[in-house]
Amino acid sequence: MMRLTTLLFAAAVVAAPLAVTPSAAPAQGMFDTRLQVNDRIITNYEVTQRARFLDVLNTSGDLEALALEALIEDRLRLDAAAAYGVTATEEQVRAGMNEFAGRAGMDADQFIAALASDGIDAATFRDFVEAGLLWREVVRQRFGNRIGQITEADIDLALSASSQQRALRILLSEIVLPGTPEWIDQTGPLADELSASIRSEAEFAEAAQQYSASQSREAGGRIDWLPLANLPPAIADMFRNMSPGQVTEPLYLGNAIVIFQLRALAEEPAPPPSAVTVEYAQFLIPGTGPEAQAEAARINASIDTCVDLNRIAAGLPQDQLTFTTQSMPEVPQDIGLELARLDANESSARLTRGNATVFLMLCSRRAFAGEAPTRAQAREQVVNQRLNGFSDILLDELRANAFIR
User: What is the pLDDT at residue 299?
Assistant: First the structure.
């Protein structure tokens, strides 16, 4: 099953566990009513769809309960929008969908296609975005005149906080399991079990030594420090929201299933870059066994830079060697994780494509310095922070006065 591990935004979408107990005695039919919120209903199908949506966002916890909680809040938001006469045009909703998908380096259509591969309808994504758009406008109309005066001192404080941000680096351990069709029935359940049961670094190291297919297994799966900005953005966001010791859910990356444990997170002396772009080469070596690895080692010993691969590929099919330049959000997840370990002109032969081993080489990595926000942007940040507080208050009021059964 394809996983959108690029989209880890669930923390902004879901809240605390349900105050009611909606999972008791659910209706059996897919489209039967699961719960009623005022005059609006939530069906079993919607709960299943939202739970799948949260799953591809790598949300942890009881996905069914979290999905139902999110749908309850969406119904309350829609009620509030109706009461205030707030609507959204199709163009606004589409723009919101593109903005959300853009965080994963996709447009709305690409994102919808990726969701479809996990059995998630486009309407599930659309409804999620529309409820958020309507709610933001409701909060602005309801509380826009109560946020108080935004002073120059408030803006100075926001700018100061922004200038003090520092880039991060992380210390990880990994367990890599085969994720090819002939292995997935065995390794999928094993990955789920390991992710749910590991509670310590010692347990993770023991499991890595026993099960991992990566060379890091000999070191208990431990990986050296990595700059967070070198990782694919969504995976970086996942680690940014974790605490040391926590273990990720299984990540389905190409022909592998990967479980990570965050061991440490530390600040760098410099501010984070605004963007990272990589140029990399992929040379396909037939086969995935020891002979292919030996050929990868031979190639690595015979070249110094990516340019030298042209000599290796001379006379071979044109598509056997490719050079690609992409920003990190555009890089495939499995390639992005491999590149994160490499410096310029270093290589890896850990990935496979079909019945071929990928000799992957990083040609260059360019980090672009982040631009300081303008005073107008800092002011908008202060406004949004204050409105968020009112948003929570209003949602609590709507829930307290709602008919939910």
Answer: 96
Is the dihedral angle over the CA atoms 100, 6, 371, 165 positive or is it negative?
A: positive
Helix (H) or strand (E) holding 350: strand 347-353
CB atoms under 10 Å from CB of 365, counted, come to 19
Q: Which residues pair with 176 in a beta bridge?
A: 258
Q: What are phi and psi of 90, to 5 degrees?
A: -60, -35
Nearest to 320 by CA among 358, 347, 292, 290: 358
Token pair recorded at residue 150 = 């935004």
Distance CA 335, CA 365 (A): 14
Side-chain-side CA neighbours of residue 64 (13 Å): 11
pLDDT in tens, 5-33: 333 322 232 222 223 333 333 446 888 89
Distance CA 201, CA 70 (A): 33
- In the block, residue with structure tokens 């605004």: 274
Phi, psi of 218 (to 5 degrees): -65, -25
Per-residue pLDDT tens over the stretch 277-327: 899 999 999 998 899 999 999 999 999 999 999 999 998 998 899 999 988
Least Cα distance to 348 among 244, 223, 245 occurs for 223
In order of 8, 103, 174, 261, the CA distances from 96 in angstroms are 17, 11, 35, 33
Question: 6: closest CA among 232, 175, 182, 274?
Answer: 232
Highest mean pLDDT among 75-89, 156-170, 364-378, 386-400: 75-89
- CB burial of residue 21 (10 Å; 0-12, 13-18, 19+): exposed
Give strand pairing partners of 264: 171
Q: What is the pTM of this model?
A: 0.56
In 3D space, the residue among 62, 27, 36 whose CA is nearest the CA of residue 404 turns out to be 36
Please name the helix (run of DSSP H) or strand (run of DSSP E) that holds residue 226, with its range, or none: strand 226-227
Average pLDDT on 77-91 reads 94
d(CA 364, CA 325): 9
pLDDT given at position 362:
96
User: What is the C-alpha to C-alpha distance for residues 373 and 395, in angstroms, rounded to an integer?
Assistant: 30
